[in-house]
Amino acid sequence: MDEREKESLKEDLKSLILRTYEVEEKYKELSKSYEKLQNTIYEIIESLPNAIWILERDKIFLQNSEAKKISKILPKIETDKNSYELEFENKIFLIKINQTDQKTIITATDITEQKRSERLASMGQIAAHLSHEIRNPIGSLALLSSTLLKRVDIKNKPLVLEIKKALWRIERIVKSTLLFTKGVSISLDSFYIEELSEELEEAIEFYDFSKDIDFIFNLPKKIMRGDFDLLSIVFQNFIYNAIDAIEESDEERGEINLSYRENKNFHIFKITDNGKEIEDKKILYEPFKTTKTKGHGLGLALSLEIVKAHNGDIKLLENEKGFEIRIKKL
Which of 16, 136, 303, 321 is deepest in the core (most CB within 10 A)? Predict the structure, then answer.
């Protein structure tokens, strides 16, 4: 090989090395771009509120944190379907599946609240319709029983009083149902807090219970603003729940306390009892759900709506069996 050929070979080698460097730089740029694209795709998937899995040959290629939270649902998903609802761990998920040549994309969206709202709306419409249908005959029966009480022999008066109690309870259920389905609208007025005691004592007379129960109401002669009728319903519901808890407990004698205090912003009521412990705290305010042997499951749900309408809140006590009800000072 002569000198000219050697120089030519050197130039070719230099050119090849330069091209190799260029290819390497391009590869690095492409790798960075691909990595950036992957990160962007992952950030997009991670930002979505529903669970997402991307499967490749039935193995997880990519998933977001929402998917990791409910990872046990993945084996239960039927990948031969396009879209369906799946119940898992007391929740309802909308499952959607898209198939590509090599990958399967699965999304699971929690639609529990949506289904619950639909179910409540349907139940509410039925309940409202029934309440309207029941209201008129109940009103007639209440009027007739009041007339009968004035005319009946004294020995039969207890029987008529029991009829009046039963009618009063039905009227209360009807009123609660209509309030819940129509929505709570408060009418503000001033009243003495101690007037709630009188209202509760009268309401207790219409409620059936077999045990001896001491009712201790410590409410002050202090003016507050609120909807007296609706707040009376709130406290009636809590007192009735306390009575039912005592009736279902092993205690021979019951005690229910209603007390009051205040701070700068709130009227604060505390209701405690020595009855049976609450079985399922998760469904306390769930409409139409109850663990009691009697009741329609609307009491606490309606009470919460009324208290919220007064810009207040309800808290389950930790160290005592009972509740704290806070009503915003207006």
Answer: 303
The answer on 127 and 74 residing in a single domain is: no
Same domain, 100 and 205: no
**Residue 268, domain CATH:** 3.30.565.10
Domain match, 320 and 190 both: yes
CATH number at residue 179: 1.10.287
Distances (CA, A) of 58 to 52, 54, 95, 281, 295: 14, 9, 17, 40, 50
Same domain, 72 and 165: no
**Judgement on whether residues 130 and 84 belong to the same structural domain of the protein:** no
- Cβ within 8 Å of residue 51, ≥6 positions away: 63, 64, 66, 67, 69, 70, 73, 93, 107, 108, 109
| Number of domains making up the chain | 4
66, 191: one domain: no
Coarse DSSP helix, strand, coil percentages of the chain, rounded to the nearest 5 percent:
50, 25, 25
Per the structure, the complete domain to which residue 41 belongs is given by 1-47
Q: How far apart are CA 139 and CA 125, in angstroms?
A: 21
Report the alpha-carbon distance of residue 291 to residue 283 in Å, rounded.
Answer: 9
Question: pTM (2 decimals)?
Answer: 0.56
Integer angstrom CA distances of residue 77 from 5, 31, 85, 109, 252: 69, 35, 10, 13, 52
Shared-domain flag, residues 259 and 192: yes
